[in-house]
Amino acid sequence: MRFAGQYTATSDTIKALRLAKEAGLTPDKLRAILEANLAYIDVLEPFLAEILAPALSNKKIEQLGRTLEKIPEQGINKQIAPLLSLTAAIKESFAVAARTDAGL
What we know:
Blueprint: E1 2-3, E2 6-7, H1 10-22, H2 27-51, H3 61-68, H4 86-101
Antiparallel strand pairs: 1-2
Helix pairs in contact: 3-4
């Protein structure tokens, strides 16, 4: 990656490539994952923009959790299986954040 004529994040990029190779991701599989995730983000973006528009507060965390339970499933096909769907990652991340905020 270049920024202002200098290569940046080189070590992060190398690490990410090494991890992808260790996971057995081929360029075709990685491309399929990226395409599936981008398509799912296009579906989710309007939904998330609407539910996240109001300012967040501790009082709204429970309501946000109930709303996130209603987001459409990504659906994992054989091209990206057995990887975790973005749906699951979003819900799991929210659950961890909510527990942390609650001091659990």
